Amino acid sequence: MTSHVKPLTLTGTVAVVTGASSGIGEATARQLAELGATVVLAARRIDRLTQLAKELGKQALAVEVDVADANAVKSLFDQVMSAYGRVDTLVNNAGVMLIGPAHMAPLDEWKQMVDVNVMGVLNCTKIALPYLVEAAKSAPRNVADIVNVSSVAGRKAQPGSAVYSATKFAVGAFSDGIRQELASQHVRVTLVEPGFTDTELASHINPVILEKMQAAMAQMPRMTAHEVADSITFAVTRPTGVSISEILIRPTEQER
Length: 256
Description:
Distance between the termini: 39 Å
Structural class: alpha/beta
Helix content: 40-55%
Strand order of the largest sheet: 3-2-1-4-5-6-9
Oligomer: single chain
């Protein structure tokens, strides 16, 4: 007789999603809300967050934040704790991809990727940790989750993406390190590494470089943001005794 695994309910839990103004972050926030979570929408584009919060209703809170700014991140979680008193799930999704040949890249673009892709994850995780540990001790789940959204670029560097890949490799190393530290406290850490996905991420690229890439990019198979979000919601709804450490997800036709 087949036994089916019953997913955890998210009703009564609070999830903070960074980069929630579009793409994977927005799709994840929608799915978490559909599953019963109260969702805190965090990003820099407050106009988009406000519109999304209106669509999601009373179980959503929009907060403007730059994750690279540690003081702003602290203010974010102060607001969350004041409003809801707990944090059960943190989805570190905010990121930028500024790719192109190294000799053409402004140093400021490299710094921006390090600030957002690496320090953004570190800032949010560091400040949220005490709240996640506390939430893991109580109902409704007796477990808490950190999901760090990386990329296939965090597994293999390619010409033009050296620094972007470096930031995503860093996220992978950080995720595995804290996973081991937090396991005994029932705080699960999942690294999600999407392949080509149809989001606004490429819009950050220098227009000159982007124009040269357009033909190649047009031929790439892509997933939707909601297809990637499915992997995130799957991870955070596993039974308390199950932790999914890593999810590498590509379009079927993507070869590397």
